[in-house]
Amino acid sequence: MPVSLANGPGLIDEPVTPAAIHPRYRFGFVLNTTIGNMTRYVNLRKYAERDPDVEFTWVPVTHCVAPTSALGRAVPRPVHLRAAVLRQAWPGLAALSHLDAVMLHLFEAELITLMRRRFMKRPVVISSTDEAPIGDPTSYPMYPHDLRKSAWRRRLRFAIDRWRARQADHIMPFSQWAADIICEQCDVSPDKVQAIHVGLDIERWTLREPKPQGRGERFRILFVGGDFERKGGKLLLDVFERDLREVAELHIVSNQAPPPRCEQVHVHRNLKPNDEALVELYRRADAFVVPSRADLVPWAYLEAMAMECPVIGTAVGAVPELIADGRTGFVIPRDDGRALSATLQTFIADRALARRMGQAGREHVLTRYNAAVNVPRILDVMKGLVDKR
């Protein structure tokens, strides 16, 4: 209930909430906002700030910072990027002694914060990540930049990541896939690891009217992926042109996609996250397909399911965790063009099945990946850690 503060003789008492007097908790968030992580930051902040018991310090950081001076361009690129990241993260690092808890999704800032813990125990440190330490490269969905690293660099990074996992007070990965790797390969107690995905902003990703039935029209396939090659765009394009061009049309959202080679392929460039044009493409699509060669916890599958699109993904990273195989879509083997073609033709032959899976997908997002539900869960975990400390 609101309480009243006496303002002195002759002044009217003004109702204020307890949080307006003094918030119970002070939380900081130093977060990577590059590419898909920007969506995560926006959703987390929107729903977190509805909690009146918390005073927030937000520090968004991007890795994509080009040097602007001649001196900056003369510095080796990795050094420049690390320096730029730390410069952006500094407001959060400078505020650590005033915070009850800090959530970090930024390698450099987390290293500094954990080393500081040797001298200062405050605040509670929560490590948040979409990836997991690469202990076994043969089973990990390696990105191109990871594949280019030498074996000794990968071993060094794994040793550092293992140390970080052990030093943090709590670890909150986006997926159970990452949580299992952290526990098993870094020897971290499961009590210290809790997978919670921030979730989708359902207030934005919602159908304003019934999804078009598409009777008598070509089946509309949608692909969304900035890294066209890694996301399996080439495989999808080859399969479409070979097997599906007579019965379907393909819409590709990617700045890296090649120019279309047939009139049934449509390439959409320069669309931003949450762009209304992108939302409309999801709304009109009959199926969403990203046969990724390497991925962690891609947002696009959740966006598609929220818009009642059945999804087809590959068994890499946490993708099998996002897709309820056989209920909201299908998970196929990586680099398997035959399986991709057969699965798409199943949808084309049975549009009622595609619609049922699409509807199940939205329910799946509402129950498991809803930011309005998951963000309060994240804050509750942080409050519990602070209270226990």
Q: What is shown here, in short?
A:
With 389 residues, the protein is of the alpha/beta class. The protein has two domains: 24-201 and 370-383, 3-Layer(aba) Sandwich (Rossmann fold), CATH 3.40.50.2000; 219-368, Rossmann fold (3-Layer(aba) Sandwich), CATH 3.40.50.
Structure report:
This protein has 389 residues and is an alpha/beta fold. It has 2 domains: 24-201 and 370-383, 3-Layer(aba) Sandwich (Rossmann fold), CATH 3.40.50.2000; 219-368, Rossmann fold, CATH 3.40.50. 42% of the residues lie in helices and 17% in strands. The protein contains 15 helices and 13 strands. The strands form 3 sheets. A 6-stranded parallel sheet has the order 10-9-8-11-12-13, with helices on both faces. Helix 11 (300-306) links the parallel strand 11 (287-290) and strand 12. Helix 2 (37-48) crosses helix 15. The protein is globular and about 70 Å long. The model is unreliable at 1-20 (pLDDT under 50).
- Give the helix/strand class: alpha/beta
Query: What is the tally of helical segments?
Result: 15
Biggest sheet record = 6 strands, parallel
Distance between the termini: 27 Å
Order of helices and strands: EEHEHEHHEHEHHEHEHEEHEHEHEHHH
Could you tell me the number of beta strands?
13
Spatial shape: globular
The first-level CATH class name of the largest domain: Alpha Beta
CATH H-tier superfamily of the largest domain: Glycogen Phosphorylase B
